[in-house]
Each structure stands twice: as structure tokens, then as C-alpha cells.
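Internal tracking record. Fields below are filled automatically when a chain is submitted to the structure queue. Please do not edit lines marked as system-generated. If the sequence contains nonstandard residues, flag them in the REMARKS field before resubmitting.
Queue: standard
Priority: normal
Entity type: single polypeptide chain
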Amino acid sequence: MIAMRVALYSLIWWVLTNGDASSWWFGVPAVVFAVIASMTLTSPLPLVWSAWFSFVPFFFIRSLMGGIDVALRACHPRLPIAPDLIEYPLRLPPGLAQVVMVNTVSLLPGTLSTELSPGVLKVHVLDGEGERLQMTLLAIEQHVARMFAVHLNNGGE
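SYSTEM-GENERATED OUTPUT FOLLOWS
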């Protein structure tokens, strides 16, 4: 686990500095600090890499579909939007898995996570009508649960 974090933060440093070897005099302490901070601030969760790799195409497909939907609504002469703030009952346990879900929802076109309360995620949407959003949120939650190997609770906390 530590080796993966060292590799990840080193890669991030390398990308941020465009591979400048002279920056490592500052980069090594920064990577060490980042590893220590991440180990201290986050509880260890098992990661299921095959689930992470299957999440990537799922996310890109949902992003593309959401982007097309938003573009069609924006270009439609009557601008068919019905903005709403919906509440989604979270079944993920509190912690990193919930944070990943909340951020994933905010990255999808037409949605924005606005509040995370115990057992409930509030989401601002362009179209509060329809079941498709609920199905998307459920699918995201199921993918995140598989990625972190956690069980979903029975309807909220």
C-alpha cells in the first residue's frame, strides 16, 4: 500500500514538473510528506483493481451520454430543463467510498452534488423528472461499492 502511494505521488510530482530531474531535491520530501499525510488521514480500504478498471469505461460512457443530453437541452428551442434538488439515500458506508461517489456524481454533466448528510446525498440536476437519474446514481453507488469491496446498507445509514 505504501509503495503504491509513493509511486502515485512520485508520478504526480514528475508530471507537475514536466520530468525536471533538478526538482527532486524538493520533490522527495514533498512525496514523503504526501504519503505520510495520506496514510494518516485516510483509513485503509481494500481496493479491487478489476472493479476500478471496469469503472473507467462506465464513467466515460455516462459522461458522454450526460454531455450529449446537456447539449441537446441547451440547443433545443424551448430549453427543456426542469432544475431540481433531489435527495438520494446513500447506502455506502461513510468514508472514502462516499467521497468518491459524491465527486463522481459532480463530474457527470447535468449533476452537481450539493450536500452530503449522514445517509443522504443532495444533488442538483437539470431535469428532476424521470427515473434515469436514480438509476444512474444507483449504478454509480454499486460500482463504487465494488471498487472498495464494501457492502451497501439497506437504505441509508
